[in-house]
Amino acid sequence: MRKLFFLLVFLNTLGLTAQTQVGDKWVDNDLSLQIEYEDVRKTGVFTFCIYQTVRKQCIENLTTGLHVEVQDASGKVLWKGTAMGRKKSMKLPGKYPNAAFLVLKAFKPFVVNKNTGTRIHQDETLELKYSIK
């Protein structure tokens, strides 16, 4: 266990991992939500990922449940629902030609590694307000 701890500290100093163990929890505050693809106005489809800001890449094996809102330019909610996080794409019940923003907010302040089941905590709940192009 001690060797593992020192290995993780060493990798963290190299920037190969941003996760640190705090007590009995794994913590990574360098994660964010990112929209990879969006066509909400024409087809009601978007794809998202959990993005590691240090590595500048989506981490495919991380997942989280999300509250999702589609808003117009004035902030009025056109549709709201949930994404359970099992898939990284979501098909909304329709197209939203007046959509201006896509708002994603994680249910809890942690993500889950799908391979191991390990929770990776953040100080703040992941949230994104994306401007639809």
Describe the protein.
The chain starts with a helix and ends with a strand. The longest helix has 13 residues, at 2-14. The radius of gyration is 17 Å and the shape is elongated. It has one helix at 2-14; strands spanning 20-22, 25-27, 31-39, 45-52, 57-58, 62-63, 66-71, 77-83, 89-91, 101-106, 110-113, 119-121, 127-131. The protein has one domain: Immunoglobulin-like. With 133 residues, it is mainly beta. Residues 5-16 have low confidence and may be disordered.
> Unreliable stretches, pLDDT < 50, 5 or more residues?
5-16
Q: Nearest-angstrom radius of gyration? A: 17 Å
Residue share in helices? under 10%
* Total number of domains: 1
C-alpha end-to-end distance: 49 Å
What class would the helix/strand composition place it in? mainly beta
| Assigned CATH architecture | Sandwich
Under CATH, the topology is which? Immunoglobulin-like
SSE string: HEEEEEEEEEEEEE
Strand-residue proportion: over 45%
Biggest sheet details: 5 strands, mixed
CATH class: Mainly Beta
For the secondary structure, the number of strands is 13
Globular, elongated, flat, extended or rod-shaped: what is the shape? elongated
Given the structure, what is the number of helices?
Answer: 1
Task: Write out the strand line-up for the largest beta sheet, numbering strands in chain order.
Answer: 1-2-12-11-6
State mean pLDDT (0 to 100 scale). Answer: 88
